[in-house]
Amino acid sequence: MFFKSRKDDKPAAAAGSSPGQSASPGRAMVHMTVNGKAVSAEIDPRTLLVQFLREQLRLTGTHVGCDTSQCGACVVHVDGRAIKSCTVLAASCDGASVTTIEGLAKGGELHPMQEAFRQHHGLQCGYCTPGMIMAAIDIVNRKGSNVSEAVIREELDGNICRCTGYHNIVAAVRAGAAAMSGASRRQAAE
Ligand code: FES
Ligand code: FES
């Protein structure tokens, strides 16, 4: 089920590698910000974003659950929008800002949506959970904190859970939406 590593890919370098550097023949240079850190790497141009994140950056919280772009386990944010990272070439994200599940918690505190999934038992095995949470945050960002249950169910159409039956996931997204709204009001008041 997992994509094969491309054996010639070099490990991604942290900030400080040379953004102007050109790639070897047949290769591509990518520079992006991932969870707030600048990274650069020379890669096979066919490398998918999910491969780059998991295999080169070792950010294995982003999962692969299918090879048909249906399950949503691979959802991350690129420039603030949720995308399925198994459908995007890493090279096409050159210059982008990427957030993965590992980038949500701040100062040891879970993101309000992560906390809502914990409190509302929105997971069982947890395999779909990173993608669910990244998709849920995007839903709230686009639809607002009063998003209805019907809209949440419709919007989560691209995320498959094999365990929970969705009831607790939807409850968690509603609670997380309210908590995100409270957190942003507190930040504005500070
Ligand atoms: Fe299933 Fe991306 S791995 S949609
Ligand atoms: Fe197991 Fe969703 S919690 S797949």
Describe what you observe in this structure.
With 190 residues, the chain is α+β, with helices and mostly antiparallel strands. It folds into 2 domains: 91 residues, Beta-grasp domain (Ubiquitin-like (UB roll), Roll); 78 residues, Orthogonal Bundle (DNA polymerase, domain 1), CATH 1.10.150. Helix content is 32%, strand content 14%. A 6-stranded mixed sheet has the order 1-3-2-6-4-5, with helices on one face. It is globular, with a radius of gyration of 17 Å. The N terminus is likely disordered. The site of one FE2/S2 (inorganic) cluster (FES) has 11 residues, from loops.
SSE map:
Layout: E1 13-14, E2 28-34, E3 37-43, H1 49-56, E4 75-78, E5 81-84, E6 97-99, H2 112-119, H3 129-143, H4 149-155, H5 167-189
Parallel strand pairs: 2-6
Antiparallel strand pairs: 1-3, 2-3, 4-5, 4-6
Helix pairs in contact: 2-5, 3-5
Quick overview:
This protein has 190 residues and is α+β, with helices and mostly antiparallel strands. The protein is built from five helices and six strands; from the N terminus they run βββαβββαααα. Bound molecules: FE2/S2 (inorganic) cluster (2 copies).
CATH topology of the largest domain: Ubiquitin-like (UB roll)
Radius of gyration: 17 Å
Oligomer: single chain
Number of strands: 6
Helix content range of the residues, please?
A: 25-40%
Strand-residue proportion: 5-15%
Let me know the CATH homologous superfamily of the largest domain. Beta-grasp domain
What string, H for helix and E for strand, traces the elements in order? Answer: EEEHEEEHHHH
The total domain count is 2
Helical stretch tally = 5
Structural class call reads alpha+beta
